[in-house]
Automatic annotation (TrEMBL):
KW Lipid metabolism (keyword) present: yes
Pfam families found in the cross-reference section: WS_DGAT_C, WS_DGAT_cat
Signal peptide start and end residues: none
All residue ranges annotated as the O-acyltransferase WSD1 C-terminal domain in the record: 306-451
Gene Ontology terms: cellular component: plasma membrane
Organism expressing this protein natively: Zhongshania marina
Pathway: Lipid metabolism; Glycerolipid metabolism; triacylglycerol biosynthesis
Name used for this protein in its record: diacylglycerol O-acyltransferase
Family indicated by similarity: Belongs to the long-chain O-acyltransferase family.
EC number, as in UniProt: 2.3.1.20
Catalytic activity: an acyl-CoA + a 1,2-diacyl-sn-glycerol = a triacyl-sn-glycerol + CoA
MF terms (GO), sorted A to Z: diacylglycerol O-acyltransferase activity
Swiss-Prot/TrEMBL keywords: Acyltransferase, Glycerol metabolism, Lipid biosynthesis, Lipid metabolism, Transferase
């Protein structure tokens, strides 16, 4: 079989994956059947079972050997009984019952002997709705790549028909697109000499060390500055998943009034919800929790396989009771982090990120997570989805969420997915580490209202 090399950052996801910490993620897509079409889901599943042409990475299987590589699996060797599952919620179904099912499905590792994906079509939500949970591996794509895949699969035209299954489309860019993205990256890098890039990386690392670790009043944060908390112990394989939803306009109003970014509002609301949740259990650390925030460095139009991420660290203001003070602290922290990386080219950011993450990745590969001081208290992602309302063969895409990855030392992940005119937030947690985790989602809604009131909106 033909084999495909895996770059080191993608391969790292295979090494950090453990039995209790699978490295797969969503998306979870809520859909409404075309009006009056009661047999839509059954026909969809039947048509998809006949879709037996697989594009990369849906035909990539991990090859045997010491060095991780993908091998391209022939179409006739993929087992659709494994990859495509049709399920139904017990009546009367609803979003709560769907959350329970997804929690269970998200708990199980993908089989490395097969291509690393599964698609669940889940009906019975009520109101003519169903869901698609596409289980993907982080070694093959990141959240932005998954979002681009969804954009390629769906249409803004509600009358579009005969649309193919996601695995027949895949992610691998055409040679022209890959060449253009590579040229764009090389052009940006060529404008800065190799020595200047090394100097910029060294300067960024020096600033991070001096400001984050030696300046107690700095708004710049780095790995291993967060306190030890109940979020940062060993985890079990069992998951719990919850969701929250906001109108994009609501976050924009708050951001505009406060003079901050939408993501700052999201982080501050998250900090407020976590402060309340941990306070109720009498386990709120005196120091603020610190979030690790993935930042996409994927060039526009680059829908290639793999990950293109950097990471920044920011306070969540869980040590502050006042919502406006918390929002200010979060905003200053994220601005400091962005400013630090703004002097680096994309290839320099990749090198910088590898250096900064090296201790954490090593710790995770060795299975030491949860025993040592956490690199961050949780990962908080912001994935930009389609900006227009989308459809699939006439079915309306209602909401898009992102069940995500947990590790030993990180029992909670929060992912915000923007879609059309709404913000969809998914909360993935270790069921045994965080009892009644759904309260965090509820408290986030109340924290958003509290922030509006504090701003006089």
């Amino acid at each position: 079989m033909e084999r495909v090399a895996i770059n080191p950052m993608d391969a790292a996801w295979l090494y950090v994956e453990k039995e209790q910490a699978p490295a797969h993620f969503g998306p979870l897509i809520f859909m409404s059947c075309p009006e009056g079409d009661e047999g839509f889901v059954q026909r969809l599943v039947a048509e998809w079972r006949k879709s037996l042409t697989f594009a990369p990475p849906f035909n990539y299987r991990l090859a045997k050997g010491l060095i991780p590589r993908w091998e391209i699996t022939p179409n006739d060797q993929l087992d659709m009984e494994y990859h495509l599952r049709h399920s139904a919620l017990p009546a009367p179904g609803g979003e709560a019952e769907l959350g329970i099912m997804v929690s269970r499905l998200h708990s199980h590792k993908l089989d490395r002997k097969k291509p690393l994906w599964q698609c669940y079509v889940i009906e019975g939500i009520g109101g003519g709705r169903f869901a698609i949970y596409l289980k993907l591996h982080h070694a093959q794509m990141d959240g932005m790549a998954a979002s681009m895949l969804m954009a390629k699969c769906f249409s803004t035209d509600p009358d579009a028909r005969n649309m193919p299954a996601p695995w027949t489309i895949g992610l691998k860019s055409s040679p022209e697109k890959l060449a253009a993205a590579k040229l764009k990256k090389q052009t940006a890098a060529s404008q800065v000499s190799a020595w200047a890039r090394l100097s910029n990386i060294r300067r960024a690392l020096s600033t991070l060390g001096k400001e984050a670790y030696l300046n107690a009043n700095s708004s710049l944060f780095a790995p291993y500055q967060g306190p030890k908390s109940v979020l940062n112990g060993r985890i079990s394989p069992h998951r719990r998943y919850a969701t929250q939803r906001f109108e994009l306009a609501q976050l924009k109003r708050i951001a505009d009034k406060a003079g901050v970014k939408i993501n700052d509002v999201f982080l501050a609301v998250t900090g407020a919800a976590l402060r309340r949740y941990l306070s109720e259990q009498n386990v709120l650390p005196k120091k603020s929790l610190v979030g690790q925030i993935p930042v996409s460095i994927r060039p526009a139009g680059d829908d290639a396989i793999g990950n293109a991420l950097s990471f920044v660290y920011a306070t969540l203001g869980t040590d502050l009771d006042d919502p406006l003070a918390r929002l200010k602290a979060v905003s200053q922290s994220t601005e400091s982090a962005k400013s630090l990386q703004s002097t680096l080219t994309v290839d320099a950011i990749e090198a910088y990120t590898s250096i900064v993450l090296a201790p954490y990745i090593t710790e995770t590969i060795l299975g030491l997570g949860g025993y040592l001081r956490p690199a961050s208290n949780l990962v908080i992602s912001n994935v930009m989805g389609p900006r227009q309302r989308m459809y699939f063969n006439g079915a309306r895409i209602e909401h898009i969420y992102g069940p995500s990855v947990l590790f030993h030392g990180q029992a909670l992940n929060i992912t915000m997915s923007s879609y059309a005119d709404e913000i969809n937030i998914g909360y993935t947690a270790c069921r045994d580490s965080l009892p009644s985790m759904q309260r965090i989602a509820v408290y986030s809604g109340e924290a958003m209202n509290e922030l509006e009131e504090a701003l006089g909106l």
